[in-house]
């Protein structure tokens, strides 16, 4: 998602003409107005983008100003937490999705708005971090879990997801069977559909009727959506369509809050140029490894050995590759007969061919941005 936002703003910035100049000024103003300071943050210099870097993307549930996006709650939760690691040579990306129900230790956090300090906790779900100190607390919590430094972060809202899907003309998603869920508002036939607006949001939030009905199945749908969005951005002429670009960048500026380290357009341009160089088959989406929580069947805890293996490779800036059965139970390879306007992607790995360079992590669940997948719909609809 951040690759899409950065690319849109970057292309507008380097476009010629007075309209582009005015549009860029307006976008700059909006981005800087919404910027969020992270704890201890120092805005990195331009040279800081040399080498590897990490960005945390956070989707807020029940964020301020949002209406009609499900049942209202007093607390705002970090419903989606995605860490993007870009390799030092800028040829690979590892995108790690953390389950919202992941029970982990939390560090001490301070709410920048109220000044209240929250004590460290030993075992609480990841999604309570936001209410303990906003975006900065979520960053601190993921840093505490992974041991990685995260200098960049972005906060997305449900409203932003809706508007960004509309801005690109919809995103193609695939279902193995028709789904008709009045509770989530998702009504799609079997096969490929182009979703936008609230249907796109309903697809991203659907849980009960896909995979095993858990939050892990929803992560698989989110990864399929992000992959499809990246493919559309790079293949459908979006980056050369000024109207689509401005609509996308404007939606992002209105609904995405960046850390101050990202709020400058020079930083956005650098980030976009870096991310643009990564081939789709080298953008790997993985689920943070988990296992059932023996204390609560509705929660999960880290799979210590597998998580250590994954994070060790990220720390060492080594390639992370997926095995032959990495899609898990919530996604399957899209059939060749599925209607699609997808381009041929040079170097796209076969889903049945395992890597041979030792980069494969057996047991890891995920996909690459080059793979076309279908969300597995539960048969007990």
TrEMBL record:
Keyword Signal: yes
Gene3D superfamilies, per the entry: LCP protein
Keyword terms, alphabetized: Signal
Pfam families, per the entry: LytR_cpsA_psr
Signal peptide start-end: 1-20
Stretches assigned to the Cell envelope-related transcriptional attenuator domain: 78-234
Residues covered by region (Disordered): 330-360
InterPro entries: LytR/CpsA/Psr_CW_biosynth, LytR_CpsA_psr
Superkingdom of the organism of origin: Bacteria
Compositionally biased intervals (Low complexity): 330-340
Family, per entry: Belongs to the LytR/CpsA/Psr (LCP) family.
Name under which the protein is recorded: LCP family protein
Organism: Amnibacterium endophyticum
